[in-house]
Amino acid sequence: MSGVRRRLESLSPQDIAVCSVVKAELFYGAVRSRIPQRTLALQ
User: Fold this and answer.
1) How far is CA 41 from CA 3, 4, 27, 30, 36, in A?
2) How many structural domains comprise the chain?
3) Distance (Å, whole) CA 25 – CA 18
4) pLDDT score recorded for residue 2
5) Residue 35's domain spans which residues?
6) Prediction pTM value
7) What is the tens place of the pLDDT at every residue in 1-43?
8) How far apart are CA 15 and CA 27, in angstroms?
9) 12 in a domain, yes or no?
10) Could you tell me if residue 22 is inside a domain?
């Protein structure tokens, strides 16, 4: 497991912030994935 993932998992969701551009890129990637419904549900 990467250090970034480990760090994010140790935080409360309320303590995590991303800019709107990153959020849009993550959403775009999820929609374009092989199984968009599953990928979006992981959010």
Assistant:
1) 23, 21, 11, 9, 8
2) 1
3) 11
4) 83
5) 17-43
6) 0.61
7) 689 889 999 999 999 999 999 999 999 999 999 999 998 887 6
8) 20
9) no
10) yes
Tell me, yes or no, whether 33 lies in a domain: yes
> Hey, what amino acid is at 25?
E
Structure tokens at 34: 């092989």
Total count of residues recorded for the chain: 43
* Residue at 37 is within a domain: yes
- Per the listing, tokens 């709107």 go with 20
Are 30 and 43 contacting, i.e. CB atoms less than 8 angstroms apart? Answer: yes
Q: Which two tokens stand for residue 17?
A: 């912030």
DSSP states of 1-43: --HHHHHHHHS-GGG----HHHHHHHHHHHHTSSSHHHHHHT-
